[in-house]
Each structure stands twice: as C-alpha cells, then as structure tokens.
Amino acid sequence: MSELNAVELLLVEDNPQDLELALRALRKANLSNRIHVARDGAEALEFVFCEGAYGGRTIADAPKVILLDLKLPKVDGLEVLKRIKGDPRTKLIPIVVLTSSKEQSDVVESYQLGVNSYIVKPVNFERFAEAVHDLGLYWLLHNQPPKITR
Fold it and tell me: Which residue in 52, 93, 101, 130 is a FRET match for 80, CA 20 to 30 A apart?
C-alpha cells in the first residue's frame, strides 16, 4: 500500500452517536484524512491482521494509532487489545482505549494487556471533541513511533 493510501487511525466504535462525534471531532481538527472505522471487535482484528475482507492489505500497513472502545459486539475490546498486543508483528501499534467504562477492573486489565492510554469518554460534545482532538494531535503528529520492519 502506498504511503498516500495508508490508514493512520483505526477507530473501533460500535455506537453510531459516539462514532459520529469522534469523526466530527477529527474533521474539526483536520485529522480525518486517513481513518478506517471498524464497528465491532471482529472487524478490527480482521483489519489489523489483514484477514477476511481485508486480505488484500499487508500487516506492514498498520495504522499509526488505534482508538478502541471496550464494549464491542462479536469480540470485546479487551480481547482485541490482548490479541494485538500479544502478537510481535502488531504489539508496537499504540492503542488508546476510548470508552464509557470507568470500571477500575477495565482500567487495570487494559494496562496489564499493554494499552498506551485509557480515556473515559466525556459526555458533552465539546469536551469529547477536545479529547479526540488532543488524542489525534498527540498520536498522529507528535508521537515518534519506532520503525517497524515486518
């Protein structure tokens, strides 16, 4: 895949309202050029591992960052996190959990599984937009990822 077509951000979100809010916030921050949306955990894993409908991709075309909800259909977010961070080919992809769960057990397990950041979704749009904007700026523009050879 060419650099021009590379996905920079994988947004894994099943809630249509939260998805639209995140996409609006990313557009507002001019960070919406190369985003792929997965609406459940199974689709996210297929995308990252280039399986199923995404078999034409290569694992070297990994996103720069994954924004991951925990409460997902088919495969929950913790399992997605576990599988991505447990594979040597994908474990260095930064993953930010962006969820409504304030459960301490979810926070602890996410960090034990290797999450890079855990953010509880703010309820109102302005705060949510600000959080997504800040995440996008940091992870897409400021973070210096390691060079990965796969």
Answer: 130
**Structural tokens at position 86:** 């447990």
pLDDT band at 97 (very low <50, low <70, confident <90, very high): very high
Choice between 133 and 8, residue whose per-residue pLDDT is larger: 8
Give the pLDDT band (50/70/90) at residue 3: very low
Q: Is 114 left (phi over 0), alpha (psi -120 to 50) or beta?
A: left
Residue 97 resides in a domain: yes
Whether 147 maps to a domain, the answer reads no
Domain residues for 113?
3-142
Q: What is the mean pLDDT of the chain?
A: 85
Q: How many domains does the chain have?
A: 1
CA 123/CA 147 separation, integer angstroms: 36
- Identity at 23, one-letter amino acid code: L
Distance CA 8, CA 129 (A): 19
CATH number of the domain within which 131 lies? 3.40.50.2300
The answer to the question of residue 150 being in a domain is: no
Given phi > 0 = left and psi -120 to 50 = alpha, else beta, which region is 145? beta
Is 64 part of any domain?
Answer: yes
